[in-house]
Amino acid sequence: MINYHEPVYRPPAEANSIIIQVTLGCSYNKCSFCSMYETKTFQTRSLDEIFKDIDSMSIYSDERRVFLADGDALACDTSFLVEVLTYLKKSFPKLQRVSSYASPYNLLQKSQEELNLLREHGLSLVYYGIESGNHELLKYVNKPMNPDKMAEGLNKATKANMKISATLILGLGGKNLSKQHIEDSAKLINKCEHINYLSTLQLGLTSTKEDNFFKRFEKKNSEFIFCDDKDMLEEQRRLISLINPKKPIVFRSNHASNALPLKGTLPRNKEDLIGTLSLAIEDSSMLRPMFLRGF
After folding, report:
1. Structure confidence at residue 243 (pLDDT)
2. pLDDT per residue over 107-150, tens digit each?
3. Which of 71, 199, 226, 288 could pair with 26 as two cysteines, CB 3.0-4.6 Å apart?
């Protein structure tokens, strides 16, 4: 078995996948809201180490899914990743899906040819944190990526025939930037050729992140006022009402941080989702108790 370098994070959908740490930590690791890899210094592990981990899990040779950890395996050189993907296919002959987190920087730095090559060797799904489609808010939270560049990178992944699972963070702009956050996030989603899966999280800050998070808003002369559950449900309702995708999107709010678990397909289930959210805004008994929430 693998001796993982803790902590290890993976998306909810990868609960039953084999996890292989290709990198440790996150190559960017500056987002003011994220504490996932604050105890790690980013590094790419050696092929020998990765192959040993794969060998130790090859007793489960019938496994069909592998997730490449940590924060962004796509920060690695493409040739390096091709070697990892090739070894995975050799070790797990029934392998159907290999997935990884991908940052906005990863997808922009890889050429279309590189993404095509990774897809040909088995990387079929990327998890992508949009967080917000509002450029100013992204600067506030120290993830200063231009939304047009996000769309460019996401469309490159789509062109490579990779599936995309994207996330947005409800409440990220607080009460003062809520409108801009949601409207621009919907614009970005609508601009993309095809986001296959879209999920929402609710903002939660660890004690190690709070001071820096608030100070960055203060430096921009903007007071951050937390959104409560009702505010975030209203954001979610507004978001869903504004999303008009080019192709159907599977929508989920099944992450443990969410007050209200939701699932459906957009645009087909738009009205049903909006209706459920409207009921929950008026009836807090529908919401997940606080002791059942977490990250």
Report:
1. 98
2. 999 999 999 999 999 999 999 999 999 999 999 999 999 999 99
3. 71
pTM above 0.85, yes or no: yes
Q: Which domain holds residue 129?
A: 12-283
Q: Please indicate, yes or no, if residue 295 is contained in any of the structural domains.
A: no
Distances, alpha carbon 84 to alpha carbons 91, 94, 164, 205, in Å: 11, 16, 21, 34
Q: Residue 128 belongs to a domain with what CATH number? A: 3.20.20.70
Residue identified by tokens 């279309």 is 112
In angstroms, rounded to a whole number, what is the distance separating the alpha carbons of residues 138 and 258? 21
Nearest one of 172, 130, 131 to 153, comparing CA atoms: 130
* Each residue's pLDDT tens digit, 93-115: 999 999 999 999 999 999 999 99
Per DSSP, 12 falls in state G
Structure tokens at 279: 């009921």
Cα 163 to Cα 276: distance, rounded to the nearest angstrom: 28
CB crowding 41-59: b at 16 or more within 10 Å, else e: ebebbeeeebbebbeebee
Tally of structural domains, the chain: 1
* 171 in any annotated domain: yes
HSE-up of residue 116 (Cα within 13 Å, Cβ side): 4
Return all residues near 115 (Cβ < 8 A) that are at least 6 apart.
Answer: 107, 156, 157, 159, 160, 162
C-alpha dihedral, 16 to 76 to 104 to 209, nearest 10°: 70
The DSSP annotation for 9-55 comes to ---GGGTTSEEEESEES-SS---TT--TTTT---EEPPHHHHHHHHH
Tokens of 90: 């050799």
The per-residue pLDDT for range 149-173, each reduced to its tens digit, is 999 999 999 999 999 999 999 999 9
CA angle (24, 28, 31) in 5-degree steps: 115
- In a domain, residue 5? The reply is no
The SS3 of residue 162 is coil
AA identity, residue 69: A
**293 within a domain of the structure (yes/no):** no
